[in-house]
Amino acid sequence: MPKGVKVEHHERTVKITGPLGAAEFSYDPCLTVKIDEAGGRIDVVNPEPEVRHNKELHGTTRALIANMIVGVTQGYQKKMEIYGTGYNVKEQGGKLVLQVGFAHLVEMPVPKGVKVTIDVAATRGNDVPAKFALSGVDKYAVAQFAAEIRKVKPPEPYKGKGIRYADEHIRHKVGKAFASGGA
After folding, report:
1. Bridge-partner residues for 46, per DSSP?
2. How far apart, in Å, are the Cα atoms of 65 and each of 4, 16, 113?
């Protein structure tokens, strides 16, 4: 555990508090979580390692607790881009408002614990995208909200217009080829 992280364990719930916030997780009763304050460790113990279900939960629980520690110390961030002429993004009243080529604006409520930072609000042609970032303590909440935003207008393969992750590469297809001249 890094310095500045406080861990509380009550019954089957682990609560981790750090400089960026707090995260809480309730684990399955077939596992045991031991906190070693002196050594700065959290151990997930599987009393019955031969049971397949327990083995699966053991790894998942360990990973979720590790993600919580990273979340409260460093945080998670997803950067996104919107390509398309006239497309834009803004945040107003706790909602993310997207204008992405529909006849109406798309309003999405921002989940609790997720912060939206808009770097470039509107696109300039098809070359300069609108850019924004989602950040928060909970890895699942940030990634799920990013996936829901991308689902509004996924990038199309011909011109690449739509909403995508900043590190996503779109494979472009060749459009129709027209033959010149008549028969």
Report:
1. none
2. 16, 9, 18
State pTM to two decimals.
0.85
Least confident segment among 85-89, 147-151, 176-180: 176-180
Helices (H) and strands (E) in the chain, counts: 2, 12
What pLDDT, in 10s, does the model give residues 75-87?
A: 999 999 999 988 9
Question: Of the candidates 120, 129, 118, which has an alpha carbon nearest to the alpha carbon of residue 95?
Answer: 118
Could you tell me the domains of the chain?
6-73 (3.90.930.12), 76-165 (3.90.930.12)
Q: Which helix (H) or strand (E) holds 9?
A: strand 6-10
Query: What contacts 11, CB < 8 A, 6 or more positions away?
Result: none
